[in-house]
Amino acid sequence: MKTKPFMLGAVAYDPKVVTIWEGFKAYFIKHGLPFDYVLYSNYEQQVEAHLAGHFHVAWNSPLAWVRAERLAQANGKQATAIAMRDSDQNLTSVIVVRADSALQTIADLSGQKVAVGAIDSPQATLLPLAHLRAHGASDLAVVRHDLLSGKHGDHIGGEREAARALMAGTVAAACMIDGNHLLFTNEGTLPAGATRILAQTAAYDHCNFTIFNDAPPEQVQRFRELLLAMSYDDAEVRPLLDLEGLKVWKPGRTEFYRALESAVDEMRFYDEHGNITVADYQY
Amino acid sequence: MTNTETSRSQIINIEALSLVNGAHLLLKKALRELPAGAKLGVRGTAPELAVHLRGWCRAQGHEFLVDETGTVTAWIRRGAANGRWKDAVRAGAPNHAEQGAVQASPSLQWGFAARGATVEAGGPAFHYPLHEKDQVWADNAPKLYAQAVAAQWNPNTAIHWEAAFILEDEVEHAVVQVMTYLIENENAALQVPAKFIAQIHPHFREVLQLLAIQVADEARHIEVFTRRATLRGKPLGLSTVSGQQSLKTLLDEPDFALASFLLSVLGEGTFLHLLWFLEQHAPDPVTRQIARLVVQDEARHVAFGVSHLQYQLSHDPSLRGRLALALNRRHDALAQTAGLNEEVFDALILLAAGSWQPAQIAAGYARVQALQTEMHAGRKVRLTKLGFSPTEADELSALHTRNFM
Q1: Which end of chain A has less neighbouring CB within 10 Å, N or C?
Q2: Are B118 and B86 in contact (CB under 8 A)?
Q3: Interface size, chain A vs chain B, as Cβ–Cβ contacts under 8 Å
């Protein structure tokens, strides 16, 4: 009888997602691991399907990781982050103002309009807002850019819209990943020299491969081994790594999700059991 | 920019440069000189440098390290990935005369890469049916290409379109008929090589270039024949079923060697005589001048056809049998057709006669007879160059289409 494949769940935030996982599928099968994947339109459905046992490993956003961990605990399971991209580690978000702005400190932003990404974007909404509030900004008028809600900010569009709002003068500040400030400046969305970085969050981590403790251990181990063995020097896998935006897979770590967990609690995005509690969240 | 060598690491001072105006060039250069795992300190004064370095390192696969001491703006630990140039190969060499420059069987993954470029491994395999050197190469292709480039002429200035001449209406009509026939043939001579260009591996650069310029030659020929045909405001002449049937067999031939043989060696080879004939006997200076310019181009096309078939035959003598078969096959396919357009044949006689005087007509007729004899002799010479015996050459030449091309 044919061995049942090791199943992965991922969110289709972009058409290239199909290309990526088809490539990974071919790679795993070639190296002896029966593998298949299922795509979800948003992370909330994915986490719930994961808990229900529809697949074995989830490619989770940091916010999906927080929910998965809470849901697992509430249901007598345990979640583990088994691997992540090198590029998922040590991100920061920046809060940007126009270069000629009078705003000099975070406290100066009190009562001002701040452009953020989608409601569920860790990097462009949850983390920077928590950072601003923790450092003295009060009564922020948050201007959301809800592109593709449910996809946890994976689509860069929300951050770009926030950057455009800043340059259009409709907001006092905008939030984005450090690397996207560089990208938006290089592509001209933010003219060079026209912005100033007012604040920067502490480092945090992004996506990871999440398993629950009831996943088949041998397949999990083989999956992780094959993943960590992928080398950027290998012409066969390099296009996949380029598409997924990494040079090397790293073992998973979870200590850099603490700030996001706090932000989720502060904004009551999920409760301690992983239920969605935030209002006005369409996905 | 200054570099400071320390025992464990290196420090680079990029002054006011930032990652939005080119600092990455200096960073990459400095990192190239370090082993994986080594640290590069970056010192700079651009206000967003530390933020951008963090994002840049993440995208490049290097580790970003905060500087605790204030010595530098930040540290970069060079990533382990050797990057995309591992297993890259050099695709021959640009100069065809260099040993190994033109490979016998270049990788299909070299695709559009310049010959001599270093090609990243893992690229897509292109579909080039003509990817073996034997299939397309001729040692004189580079020389013929250079000659072709040097010999390009501008139809506007190379031909004296205003030259004065007076022709009887019927003689002008004969010239127009011959031009109409030539345009039809040149349409075929343009499309047949064009069809093969995209099938040839670009590694054989000189062959591609030569065929491309051959196509451009034909485009010019079509222009000048059209301009001569319409010079006196007459309507164009006749196009026959048999002429088109004959030319269509050339376009339908899927094999490059066989198509070159039928088109370039036999067809264009035969056309050389027709053009020399027009250069000598056409009744007006414009037509004579056109023929003189066109025949120079056509001679190059014939030379390449002969050379590349000689090259292929030297590696695969069995090709000779296939060439003969192709000629026989075409002959059989056209056996039931009328052959040369009667109007073209008559037009050639009248054109060579230059008038309706019986004595002149007789002279014109004799000239066309002589033309056909020369065409046959020319084909025999070229067939002999391809290694056919004189007897074989004589028999094969006789099988060539009566449509000349």
Answers
A1: N
A2: no
A3: 79
Q: In the β-sheet with B9-15, what is the strand arrangement from edge to edge?
A: B2-5, B9-15, B39-44, B74-77, B63-66
Q: How far apart are CA B247 and CA B262, in angstroms?
A: 10
DSSP state of A5: P
CA angle A146, A151, A157 (to 5 degrees): 50
* DSSP code for A162: H
- Helix A258-266 vs helix A62-74: crossing angle, to nearest 10: 80
Q: How do residues B342-388 score in pLDDT, each as one tens digit?
A: 888 999 999 999 889 999 999 999 999 999 999 999 999 999 999 99
Residues of A in contact with B80 (CB under 8 A): 248
Closest by CA to A126, choosing from A65, A184, A75, A167, is: A65
Is the C-alpha dihedral spanning A243, A246, A247, A252 positive or negative?
Answer: negative
pLDDT at B7: 45
Token look-up 């706090």 returns A262
**B219-260 confidence digits (pLDDT tens):** 999 999 999 999 999 999 999 998 999 999 999 999 999 999
Compute the Cα dihedral for B363, B365, B370, B371 and give only its sign: positive
Query: To the nearest whole angstrom, how far is the Cα of B132 from the nearest Cα of chain A?
Result: 25
CA dist A240 and A237 (Å) reads 5
DSSP character at residue A255: G
β-pairing verdict for A195-200 and B39-44: unpaired
Closest to B51 (Cβ–Cβ): which among A178, A232, A246? A178
> Are A132 and A109 in contact, with CB atoms under 8 Å apart?
yes
Q: Report d(CA B405, CA B391) in Å as an integer.
A: 22
- Strand pairing of A57-60 and A208-212? antiparallel
Cα A279 from Cα A207, distance rounded (Å): 24
Residue pair B50/B61 in contact (Cβ under 8 Å)? The answer is no
Q: Which of B27, B54, B66, B118 to mutate to test the interface with A (most CBs of A within 10 A)?
A: B54
B366: number of Cβ within 10 Å: 13
Bridge partner residues of A36 (DSSP):
A7
- A278-281: long-range pairs with CB below 8 Å, 24+: A278/A119, A280/A119, A281/A119, A281/A120, A281/A149
A86–B61 CB contact, under 8 Å: yes
Considering only CA atoms, which of B124, B170, B175 is closest in space to residue B284?
B175
